[in-house]
């Protein structure tokens, strides 16, 4: 059996920036163990798989270690594959996911994703979190990740986390953030429990970041930059309980997977 696969740099304007995602279009679902094996072989932060579902698509995301509930950059990459390589022509596409239906639309910056905004609560910083980051934050909130707020972009750049200590924490991962010098806010994202020590550009984290900064800055349209080694930009807009995340994509590779028939 042979499967087509695309590797796309999401939230990027050039190859080798943004967040790489593998995208595998399927006609029907394969066994979960095979999907997980493909994601582990790819060894990217996420591999996305989708199958037709009426007028929409069912979409799932796998890290090298596990299936996840929400992934922004691989959703952006999946929409890019549909429009660019599979002749999808409608103005928007709906993906049915573990996090409910997600709509992706064409926009001036490539594509815009309609995602649920995360609920955040103020949290006392766990000692393991402070020890792992090596610096006490200004504020800590919790959603599906710890959202850790610092005062400056330089503090975010200088962090050298202890990833083994971060694995001790209870939530999915740790998102650190601060006001940006040239954008509204900057961030870095650490997910060592998912075997992704630092994610290059994380769409789902902006479902937490955008509502926080919209409330703090008093406006709903925001420009963000994730300060990983690859780096990438995300345009954010908060509307009620939804977050619209926009960015561009660049093709890196088209491949064919060979699956043994046994």
UniProtKB/TrEMBL annotation:
InterPro entries per UniProt: Phenazine_PhzF-like (IPR003719)
Gene Ontology MF, one: isomerase activity
Residue positions of the active site: 46
Any Pfam family the entry gives: PhzC-PhzF
A GO cellular-component term linked to this record: cytoplasm
The keyword Transmembrane helix belongs to this UniProt entry's keyword annotation: no
Membrane-crossing segments per the record: none
Keywords linked to the UniProt accession: Isomerase
Family stated for the protein in its record: Belongs to the PhzF family.
Record-given protein name: Isomerase
Organism the protein comes from: Alteromonas marina
């Amino acid at each position: 059996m042979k499967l087509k696969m695309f590797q796309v740099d999401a939230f990027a304007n050039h190859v080798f920036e943004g967040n790489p995602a593998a995208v595998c279009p399927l006609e029907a679902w394969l066994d979960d163990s095979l999907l997980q094996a493909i994601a582990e072989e790819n060894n990217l932060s996420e591999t996305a798989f989708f199958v037709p579902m009426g007028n929409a698509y069912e979409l799932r995301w796998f890290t090298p270690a596990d299936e996840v509930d929400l992934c922004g950059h691989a959703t952006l990459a999946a929409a890019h594959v549909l429009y660019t390589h599979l002749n999808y022509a409608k103005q928007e596409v709906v993906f049915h996911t573990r996090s409910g239906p997600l709509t992706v639309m064409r926009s001036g910056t490539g594509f815009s994703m309609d995602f649920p905004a995360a609920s955040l609560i103020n949290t006392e910083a766990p000692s393991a979190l402070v020890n792992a980051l090596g610096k006490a934050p200004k504020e800590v909130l919790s959603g599906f990740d710890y959202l850790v707020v610092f005062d400056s972009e330089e503090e975010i750049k200088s962090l050298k986390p202890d990833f083994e200590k971060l694995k001790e924490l209870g939530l999915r991962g740790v998102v650190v953030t601060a006001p940006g010098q040239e954008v509204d806010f900057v961030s870095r994202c650490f997910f060592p429990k998912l075997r992704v020590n630092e994610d290059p550009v994380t769409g789902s984290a902006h479902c937490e970041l955008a509502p926080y900064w919209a409330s703090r800055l008093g406006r709903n349209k925001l420009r963000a930059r994730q300060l990983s080694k690859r780096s990438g930009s995300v345009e954010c807009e908060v509307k009620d309980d939804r977050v619209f995340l926009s960015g561009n994509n660049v093709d890196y590779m088209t491949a064919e997977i060979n699956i043994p028939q046994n």
